[in-house]
Specification:
The complex is a heterodimer of chains A (65) and B (201).
Chain A lengths: L1 E3 L2 E3 L7 H7 L7 E5 L2 E3 L14 E6 L5
Parallel strand pairs in A: 1-5
Antiparallel strand pairs in A: 1-2, 3-4, 3-5
Chain B lengths: L2 H14 L1 E5 L3 H13 L3 E6 L22 H12 L4 E6 L16 E4 L4 H14 L4 E6 L11 E5 L2 E5 L13 H25 L1
Parallel strand pairs in B: 1-2, 1-4, 2-3, 4-5, 5-7
Antiparallel strand pairs in B: 6-7
Helix pairs in contact in B: 2-3, 2-5
The chains are: A mainly beta (65), B alpha/beta (201).
């Protein structure tokens, strides 16, 4: 089981961050991804695998400041 | 401890920290003013822009300052609140890969940039290169909604204040009461961080 933005989600073997984002329908390009408190750089999304029990934050950034 | 001693302890902690501000617009200028009034003395301000008339409806600047460089004008305005401040200013673009450069000596950094892509790049840069520095970012300030929907996402040293239903700043209206309220919440997050961290030590 994974925790994504405080919600429980089923873990799938051999799933990369990109595939997980697709499965969760996170289609916004402007996101920050953190796994277990560590920031994941965008260039790792297509290669880094998700582990069971990972706690993941997907944070959508909207313009304005 | 009595309440006067407790207040002194908090004020001493606020005096001891250095706060970095990336972007001195609606969020950055107002959050910094709140932090100066709270008792923070030490700042690093970074912004690439000059003041435009259209900024005056929400940013902590005055009509006579239109055309001035934002970091210089903000420094001057903050020094008109209290004179005993130490403020470093950088009138510059944040360069990808080096965005953290001016903030390495800070205890806390406020992400107060406008563009969503710049926000993402800045958060990435700070969290990779300075993972121990507390970073408080904001997502979603435009529109006229109440701030009741504002959520706080905390992960490691990052806190993001996010309104998932907010409009993009290129489409939604930028209203002083909402933006000043969110800037104040961002400043309060910094104050809470300062107090909690140092009290526990």
């Amino acid at each position: 089981m994974l925790i994504i933005n405080s919600k429980e989600v089923i873990w799938k073997k051999d799933e990369t961050i990109s595939l997980l984002l697709k499965r969760m329908n996170f289609v916004f390009p402007m996101i920050v991804v953190k796994i277990n408190g560590r920031l994941i750089k965008k260039d790792k999304y297509s290669t880094q695998l998700i582990n069971d029990n990972d706690e993941i934050s997907v944070i959508h950034m909207i313009s304005g400041g | 401890m009595n309440s006067l001693e407790h207040e002194k302890e908090i004020r001493d902690k606020l005096k001891a920290v250095k706060i970095g501000v990336a972007g001195c617009g609606g969020l950055g200028s107002n959050a910094t003013a709140a932090l100066v009034r709270a008792g923070v003395k030490d700042f690093v301000l970074v912004d690439r822009d000059s003041i435009e008339t259209s900024n005056l409806n929400r940013q902590f600047f005055f009509s006579k300052q239109v055309g001035e460089i934002k970091v210089d004008a903000l420094k001057s305005n903050l020094l008109s609140i209290y004179t005993d401040l130490n403020i470093d200013t950088f009138h510059t673009d944040l360069i990808p890969g080096e965005m953290h450069r001016h903030f390495t000596q800070c205890d806390i950094v406020l992400e107060a940039l406008d563009d969503a892509a710049a926000k993402v790049a800045f958060i990435e840069d700070m969290q990779i290169n300075c993972p121990k520095i507390k970073l408080i970012a904001v997502s979603g300030i435009a529109g006229t909604a109440s701030v009741d929907k504002l959520e706080k996402i905390r992960s490691g040293s990052l806190t993001v204040l996010i309104d998932p239903e907010a409009e993009d700043s290129s489409q939604g209206i930028l209203m002083a009461p909402r933006i000043i309220a969110i800037a104040a919440i961002q400043a309060l997050e910094a104050v809470i961080e300062i107090i909690s961290k140092h009290v526990n030590n």
